[in-house]
Amino acid sequence: xxxxxxxISTSLMLLFGISSGASAASNTYTVKKGDSLSKIAKTYHxxxxxxxxxxxxxxxxxxxxxxxxxxxxxNPANPAKPVKAIKEITVNASAYTLNFKNCTGITATGINxxxxxxxxxxSVDPKVIKLGxxxxxxxxxxxxxxxxxxxxxxYKIDVFIPSQKAAxxxxxxxxxxxxxx
Length: 181
Prior knowledge:
The chain contains four helices and eight strands, in the order H-E-H-H-E-E-E-E-E-E-H-E. It has helices at 2-25, 37-44, 48-54, 164-170, and strands spanning 28-30, 67-69, 87-96, 121-123, 134-137, 141-147, 156-160, 173-179. The longest helix is centred in the first third of the chain and has 24 residues, at 2-25.
């Protein structure tokens, strides 16, 4: 009886070990209950459109146990990797633009926002978030902590938005951000 249990246990461990190893070695993800394309895309630091394109999906509908490609099949040398936050904090977020007099558009870290208006940059208090850190801000996306501001003290951030109208629409809100490095 003991010999049978050991044999069954060993077989099960090998079976599960081999199947999880194969998944980890490849650039795929198996859909689990509660998953969505946006959740998977966020985990792998890719876009929903990339997931849909790489997996030939015409809608956002996915099924449990469906295997999805999480890297560009045409560029296996540059696979997407899950992004893990090293820290999560709640901050008060507002938005800023370059639409004011005497603004150079050059951030504290040297990013030229006039030449790169689509760059995702946030202003931070360097005592709270180190300049140069990569962060994820819900509703804004992945950004670099690349600027400081006179009113940005403590747990406050400013997200750069090139359009005055969109910056006003952003308003002021509390968000839980992820510091990625």
